[in-house]
Amino acid sequence: MAVDLNKLYEKRKNLLDQNQWFKKRNLEDLLSDYNSLAEKKEGINEHINSLSNLLTNRKSRFQEIKKQIKSKLNPLILISKNQKKLRREKIIVETKITIINLDIAKQKKLQQTNNKELENAQEIISRFKNINLKRNLEVIESLGFQINQLENDLSSLNEKKNKVESKIKPFIEELEKSEKLLSNAKNDLIKATDFKDKLNNSNSYERKIIHNACRNEFADDQPGRVINKNRNLIQKLERDILKLKNRLVSISEKYSKNIESLIIDGNNLSYQNNEFVGIEPLISLTKNINNKYNITVVFDSDIRSILKIDDYGINSRFSKDVKIHIVATNQKADETILDLASNNQSIYVISNDRYIDYLDKEVVTNERFIRHEIIDNRILIHDLDINIEWN
């Protein structure tokens, strides 16, 4: 759950950041920026083309000059004015070629930067156009509801976790204590048995030494008594440990139930010691739990004649949050109760009925029942931690 909640937090944050980003921009400015970069690209391309043409001309002239320059091996060549002029021009042209190459390299770097800026500008425009501010706000609102629900569920789980921990803590402590005592008792049994074995193979002098050693170890010089004592203790501790483990399992099962709704067998909770006591126990119970669960009370049709009031009279006795359903005339509520609770693992039935005639019903198969006791004008429902009086 915590992982799901973190994902929702992240998704909401991303949408909020997206909306903030969107509000700081407008399409007209983004298009203007893009057009400026496109114009800049065109200018860079033209300049590179111009430099390339100039470079071609300079290289062509350089080749022409090279062909006209004669070998330095001829002394007359060295003093020729034309040759000197050609050699100077060659150096100048060669220098210009180097400068043009450097300028072209610079322009190509500008071209690469400009292309990246254009690509980024295009992505920004596309991102801007794809953002639906209204839709984002709707999703953010929906995420808010989901986050609130999960936060409430997480809070409820933490509350249940703390409650379970407080319930099982004394049992855990007692279990650890009993297991330690059991371990010690088993070790003592081994030692006492060893003393007894040695006694069986010793002379009188050695037996005296063994009895003294047994007394020093156990405050009892008779290994047989120590053995019996520890065997009895081990049996008791093993029984206690089994009871503690069963109790821990019972508590865990009790609090692991995910109960959202309760279907209450109305007639079943109207009796104390097989004597009809009316719907007062139900009224007290539903008042106590209607803020925790969705509650539906189902009555047999004969409840009207038993109470001598109509449906409106029965409904008016309960809180408006509690749903009351009285089955059709001459009908029993059993099947309606089971059908209302079927195929939903979070719906449980409060009833002491075994429903032996409805073993095919899903809720019966999965035993989603909560038992109750009504005694001395008190309602006890252990699975729900309920112990209340009714008048």
Write up this protein:
A 5-stranded parallel beta sheet has the order 5-4-1-6-7. Strands 8-9-10 form a 3-stranded antiparallel beta sheet, with helices on one face. A hairpin with a 2-residue loop joins strand 8 and strand 9. The protein is α/β, with parallel strands linked by helices. The chain has helices spanning 2-23, 27-68, 75-78, 81-130, 133-200, 204-218, 223-256, 280-289, 303-307, 311-315, 334-341, 362-365, and strands at 261-265, 271-272, 275-276, 294-299, 323-326, 347-350, 369-370, 373-375, 378-381, 386-389. The chain is elongated.
Short précis:
It is built from 12 helices and 10 strands.
Low-pLDDT stretches are none
Termini separation: 42 Å
Strand order of the largest sheet: 5-4-1-6-7
Radius of gyration: 47 Å
Task: Let me know the number of strands.
Answer: 10
Structural class: alpha/beta
The residue-averaged pLDDT reads 92
Helix content: 55-70%
Tally of separate helices: 12
Order of helices and strands: HHHHHHHEEEHEHHEHEHEEEE
Taking the sheet with the most strands, its summary is: 5 strands, parallel
β-sheet strand percentage = 5-15%
User: What would the principal axes of the Cα set say about the shape?
Assistant: elongated
